[in-house]
Prior knowledge:
The strands form two sheets. Strands 1-3-2 form a three-stranded antiparallel beta sheet. It is built from nine helices and six strands, in the order H-E-H-H-E-E-H-H-E-H-H-E-E-H-H. By secondary structure, the chain is α+β, with helices and mostly antiparallel strands. The protein folds into two domains: 3-79, Winged helix-like DNA-binding domain superfamily/Winged helix DNA-binding domain (Arc Repressor Mutant, subunit A); 92-184, Arc Repressor Mutant, subunit A (Orthogonal Bundle), CATH 1.10.10. The radius of gyration is 27 Å and the shape is elongated.
Amino acid sequence: MEESVKKIEAAIEAVLFSMGEAVEAKELAKVLELDEKTLTKILSDMEIRYDEEDRGIRLVKLEGAYQLCTKNEYYDVLSKVINMPKKHSLTDSLMETLSIVAYKQPVTRQEIEAIRGVSSMHAVNKLVEYNLITEVGRLDAVGRPILFGTTEDFLRCFGVTSMDDLPVITPDKIEDFRKEAMEEVNVKVET
Length: 191
């Protein structure tokens, strides 16, 4: 297959994938600066190849429009993915708890609660459920409390490759945060 046809096919895939719905052939031809006959031939070849190869997608023609769809035989796999629990947004309480774990790890729930000043059992349990933190060991102390640390999912979610990539919190920033927190609870801040 010649190089220019491969590039056209790649552009078609990009358009159809990103649209997620059927795109009319005349619109595709216009965008790709091709005549409809040439485009139709390329789309027909792609459709045949997708059907012949072991691929999870197929090219479907729908009344003069084309769409990338998953093959029917992968319905059971897709239904498992669709029925997986959704990622939830992180509340302020969860973000606060997660920040403490990220910067103080390994850390116990009791240490988190001492910093936050409130019970953190629910927040810790939710963060474990979301796989953002995990048990990393036990503290060698009375009761052997669980130590928590962040996970690889945490790194992926926040777009960092290691804990060294987290922003550094300077003493000035800490003071700004303290003042902000005090103002939120209407306490006069002394300077």
